[in-house]
Design a protein that fits this description.
The complex is a heterodimer of chains A (115) and B (115). Chain A is mainly beta and 115 residues long. Chain A is 0% helix and 55% strand. Chain A is built from no helices and eleven strands. In chain A, strands 2, 4, 5, 9, 10 and 11 form a six-stranded mixed beta sheet that branches. Chain A has a five-stranded antiparallel beta sheet with strand order 1-3-8-7-6, with no helix packed on it. In chain A, a hairpin with a 4-residue loop joins strand 7 and strand 8. Chain B is an all-beta fold and 115 residues long. Helix content of chain B is 0%, strand content 50%. In chain B, the strands form two sheets. In chain B, strands 2, 4, 5, 6, 9, 10 and 11 form a seven-stranded mixed beta sheet that branches. A four-stranded antiparallel beta sheet of chain B has the order 1-3-8-7, with no helix packed on it. In chain B, strand 4 and strand 5 form a beta hairpin. The N and C termini of chain B lie far apart (38 Å). Classes of the chains: A mainly beta (115), B mainly beta (115).
């Protein structure tokens, strides 16, 4: 039962261009969404998040968009930099009545930013 | 502010053996959870501990067990190891409430290989 799906295993982008990473979810009770970034030999680190009451959240070069009707969110990175090359995980949490204690992760998308 | 530290970083066991993995939570965090990340997949929730008690569990068998200590450090124990238990085991801590309650801080993980 894969409730959070990242259908693109990898993405390659030229430095300076926009990177768009996509994520779909199936559980309409999720009320908080997060993106984590993971470098090799390190644990995932929090990048940006969005509550289900919003449709956009921006933090510097990173913007997350949420489309609740489509159960879809995306992460935009503009401009992309070689240091952004990493695996990006989409994650979701539900309220207390949906097992809100756990965070559910997608399989990840590996981003390559070419110099 | 110290982060989440895990030990050991790598270990090799044989099928049927038992393993204990250790984790020190980030300062100020009183909730710890453990995740299993198999190759090519996202982290899968094993269980969560709060105030030294398990208060949430994912789809893992009882041979996966844990402990949380008064100083909020934690252990993951796996008995009767199987080949499929080979994975990266991630420990994550978070605050129990407030604005940081939704964000996990991960350690670098313990990579377990079962032969």
């Amino acid at each position: 039962d894969q409730q959070v799906k990242q259908n693109s295993p990898s993405l390659s982008v030229q430095e300076g261009r926009i990177s768009i990473l996509n994520c779909d979810y199936t559980n309409s009770m999720f009320d908080y969404f997060l993106w984590y970034k993971k470098y090799p030999a390190e644990g995932p680190t929090f990048l940006i998040s969005i509550s289900s009451i919003k449709d956009k959240n921006e933090d510097g070069r990173f913007t997350v968009f949420l489309n609740k009707s489509a159960k879809h969110l995306s992460l935009h990175i503009v401009p992309s930099q070689p240091g952004d090359s990493a695996v990006y995980f989409c994650a979701a949490k539900g309220g207390r009545n949906t097992g809100g204690f756990k965070t559910i992760f997608g399989a990840g998308t590996r981003l390559f930013v070419k110099a | 502010e110290t982060g989440v530290t895990q030990s050991p970083t790598h270990l090799i066991k044989t099928r049927g053996q038992q393993v204990t993995l250790r984790c020190s939570s980030q300062s100020g965090h009183n909730t710890v959870s453990w995740y299993q990340q198999a190759l090519g997949q996202g982290p899968q929730f094993i269980f969560q501990y709060y105030r030294e008690e398990e208060n949430g569990r994912g789809n893992f068998p009882p041979r996966f067990s844990g402990l949380q200590f008064p100083n909020y450090s934690s252990e993951l124990n796996v008995n009767a190891l199987e080949l499929d238990d080979s994975a990266l085991y991630l420990c994550a801590s978070r605050a129990a409430g407030g604005s940081g309650a939704n964000v996990l801080t991960f350690g670098a993980g313990s990579r377990l290989t079962v032969l």
